[in-house]
Amino acid sequence: MFHGKPPTPHHTSGIAIHDLAARLRGLPPSLGPVRLIGVDGHAGSGKSTFAGRLARALDGAPVLHLDDIASHEQLFAWTGRLMSEVIGPLARGERAHFTPYDWRARAFGMPRPLPAAPVVLIEGVGAGRRALRPHLAGLLWMELPQEESWARGRRRDGVEQREFWDGWIAAERAHFAADPSRPHADLLVLQRQEGYEVLPGPGATPAAGQGVTLSERPSSMW
After folding, report:
1. 82-115: per-residue pLDDT in tens?
2. Dihedral, CA atoms, 137, 142, 147, 151, nearest 10 degrees?
3. Which pTM does this prediction carry?
């Protein structure tokens, strides 16, 4: 999927997240005119935060959150709807429209547009699933152990979501057992105090090197 060369090692720190964005912009389109970038990882691993920062570095690239696609009844059985509402239109170079799910109201809302921008980010558990990988220009995996990720997610959502989390963890275990994403990741993203460290993933070529450190500070190094 990652048709460009992943980041190569540097002995100096401070490689800006904007440089990763530049790499992604340079990839060949993977879905019509779109470079579709998946950000996957366990629930609570920081996917949304990282995708938001990366989107800003990409001058406001659209972000599709899989929390808007999934539902209580279809925690992971949403592939068909994603294909018809999003993947198909983007492949044709058209603006997509998806109906976001309201987790409190337990109902789908009004359609929202998703433009066929040069780079579109899709983030959430299952963004690197088997059915989506042929359409991705690159797959990033948030490298945080599952137990630590789930503990973070539980703390974030509080006691009112305790029952939901019990069911979610069982469903996530089953999903990744049947359709793992990490073995196919081009890049692994580790959150550090100074920013993010990005390393070649299991799906990267052996020439990818040892990775780089990304921060919010501007830098001319690459």
Report:
1. 999 999 999 999 999 999 999 989 999 999 999 9
2. -120
3. 0.86
- Match domain 15-197+207-215 to its CATH number in 3.20.20.100, 3.40.50.300, 2.30.39.10, 3.40.190.10: 3.40.50.300
With tokens 């090197």, the residue in question is 209
- Report d(CA 168, CA 76) in Å as an integer: 10
Which residues, in sequence order, are bridge partners of residue 39?
123, 140
**What is the percent of the chain with per-residue pLDDT over 70, rounded to a whole number?**
85
Contact between residue 139 and residue 203 where contact means Cβ atoms under 8 Å apart: yes
Query: Which tokens in the block code for residue 188?
Result: 């692994």
User: Cβ distance 138 to 29 under 8 Å?
Assistant: no
Q: What amino acid is encoded at 31 in this protein?
A: L
